[in-house]
Sequence to fold (345 residues):
Amino acid sequence: MERRNHSSVSEFLLLGLSERPEQQPLLFGIFLSMYLVTVMGNLLIVLAIGFDPHLHTPMYFFLANLSFADACFSSTTVPKMLVNIHTKSQTIPYGGCLAQMHFFMMFGALDDFLLGVMAYDRYVAICRPLHYATLMSPHVCVLLLSACWVLTNLAALLHTLLMAKLSFCADNTIHHFFCDLIPLLQLSCSDTHTNQVALFIVGSMILTAPLSLVILSYVHIISTILRVPTSSGRQKAFSTCGSHLTVVFLFYGAAIGVYLCPPSSHSGGKDSIAAVFYTVVTPMLNPFIYSFRNKDMKRTLNRFLKKQLWFSLPICLPFLAALMGVEEMGQIEEGESNYLELQTR
Fold:
């Protein structure tokens, strides 16, 4: 009872990425720039896909949802960190901390599942093109997306409810830049065995199941690509697959290193650096990897920006430059139609 009397924590302190005052302006500028690129890039993709009826296909349907999830994923952590740096205040209320943890886990898990579904979509389009219309019909796509949302919400809700039952002692300092599950478990003075078991079981399913689907899909995709008769077709396909796999393994590698490693291996500094990769870097890279190297998306974005120039020019100059920069690149993913063309070369 005496321990519980000292466990009514009303707020936590987020130490951030660095405690050195001279580094705070640099961190603020870097993360503000990365956040603006992430949000504007991903929202631009969502608007462009909704703008062009020709992009209303399964691949772009899931890409729009991935872009939306990426924008929300970064928005759960980076704005609070920027506010803390700007105001020189490190506090976050107890309820706000749990809410941040919930939405962070929900959108992070949604990213996991969507990457797996998108890899499956590519597998069907390349390896089973004659059955594509049936296997990836609009009804199936909606069911897959609904399953992703339901499963990720349930997983996040489970961890949030288990965390709400824990007691916290006098120490309320989180060695991180947001309220993550692992640092909160380390602060608790309650028995966290149930939370640890739930983290391992649910984390294993959320991380390894989509990753296994990605790996199996790309094994079949690469096997099919190797049978493409022209070297230019193989080179183009390998370039696209390599770009996608780089971002996928960057995301999954950092996340698995944080959530599936033994508790004794965790440290605030290493976990914070790993978290930067899957919360900031990967969502920022996804628009460039999945869209700005895509001929159909470039054409749609150009038309969309020209039509909305009065609104979009002040905020989309970086993406206009990116589109112009990749115009001369020969290794471009040309959309879902090229998947089927690989079969007829």
